[in-house]
Amino acid sequence: MKPRSGLVTDGLERSPARGMLRAVGMGDEDWVKPQIGVASSWNEITPCNLSLDRLAKASRKGILDAGGFPMQFGTISVSDGISMGHEGMHFSLVSREVIADSVETVMQAERLDGMVMFAGCDKSLPGMMMAAARIDVAAVFVYAGSTLPGQVDGKDVTIIDAFEAVGACARGLITRDRVDEIERAICPGEALVVACTPQTQWQQSEKQLGSHCLDRLRLQL
């Protein structure tokens, strides 16, 4: 079923468009397949989104196996944890709108039939959801996964402990060396630092709510 992409691939007049699609890997056998957008906010700016590239690539196989043709594209993402406390935070909420607008733009311009969305922070996640609501096509959302905690003196530590350590050091309760020790431990790997995955009308596996970003189960979603 191709509710939208037939406008791009079908008919004599679409020959130039088909020629361009051949350059990205489509062939004669693919014109009948629904084209599925794979939207990801992967970047190397923040650990929240580092795992998304491999998840998006894994989804391509699933789309092909199901009879579709994957069309992967990216969007931006910024980190509140890095941006807060200086002028950069003025751009945080704006980034949500940019994400929604950019995903909507690609989906509408290319007339893609459905979408798989990958996000891992508290602006990319709602931005993707906003885009899906506007477009109103079949959509699946996959969350990057929660980060594993670090360890200091045998106790779990997260970015929250780093914020608290800064305050404690300012009050003279702990040393700067202790702050540095906590800082080095709080983010041991890729993932989301803080997020809430919403329950939505779009398909969402219950398994993804609990598995962390390094869990191989996440690649099977």
Automatic annotation (TrEMBL):
Q: Which UniProt keywords apply?
A: Lyase
Pfam families from the entry? ILVD_EDD_N
Domain (Dihydroxy-acid/6-phosphogluconate dehydratase N-terminal): residue spans on this chain = 33-190
* Tagged with keyword Acyltransferase: no
Q: Which InterPro entries match?
A: DHAD_IlvD/Edd (IPR050165), DiOHA_6PGluconate_deHydtase_CS (IPR020558), ILV_EDD_N (IPR000581), IlvD/EDD_N (IPR037237)
- For the keyword Lyase, the answer is yes
- Gene Ontology MF, one: dihydroxy-acid dehydratase activity
What's an example Gene Ontology biological process for this entry? branched-chain amino acid biosynthetic process
What is the similarity comment for this entry? Belongs to the IlvD/Edd family.
Q: Would you tell me the protein name for this molecule? A: Unannotated protein
Organism per entry: freshwater metagenome
